[in-house]
Structures are given as C-alpha cells and as structure tokens.
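User: structure tokens for this one?
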Amino acid sequence: QVHLVESGGGLVQPGGSLRLSCVASGFTFSGAAMSWYRQAPGKGRELVAAITTSADTNYADSVEGRFTISRDNAKNTVYLQMNSLKPEDTAVYYCNANRWVGIRLVGSWGQGTQVTVSS
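Assistant:
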C-alpha cells in the first residue's frame, strides 16, 4: 500500500524558512516523479515544485529562487526547502508521487501539512 507522509509544516514569520519532508513507502521511490502542491483557503490546488527521476526540477514562478526541491532515494524522501517565506505562501502543502504501473500513470497523495506565514 502506498503511503506518503509529510512533515515539517508550522508557523513561521515572514522572511523565515521551513523544510518540508515527505517519506514514501509502498512503491519504488526512485522510479517516481515527485512533486509538492499547495492549496490555500478558498483556492485550488497548485503545483509548487517537481523533481523527476533523474533529479531535474521545475518550479512555479511564484516560488522560483526561494524554494528548492530535492530527493534522497536512499531514504525514500523528497524535501522542499522554503526560504524567504511570504504570507501568500500560507497553505496546506501536499506531497505527490507519479509513477508508471504497467501502462498506467498512477498518482498518489499525502495527507498534507499546514504552513502558516504570519507575524
């Protein structure tokens, strides 16, 4: 059974930093593309950052230069380092895994972790 467990969220002041972690189990982590999404109150879920199986990365314009996604295949973990946080970064952050199962692309989600940026 696939599990994605996020941690590292919390309350931080503007300009501060947080590092989110997502530990995966139940599938071959190194073969999955991993992403972080976020959903703010009253808004849709949006892609924040993604990392491929070969560690290529992509970021939303709103976080480019402030956030860094990385992965440790030995630990089955994907990270999101968030620096220079702004109030508009406040959201629930979700970990996502996309992997091929046969000819199907299967997506899985974690339960989310709350990030609140406020003074």
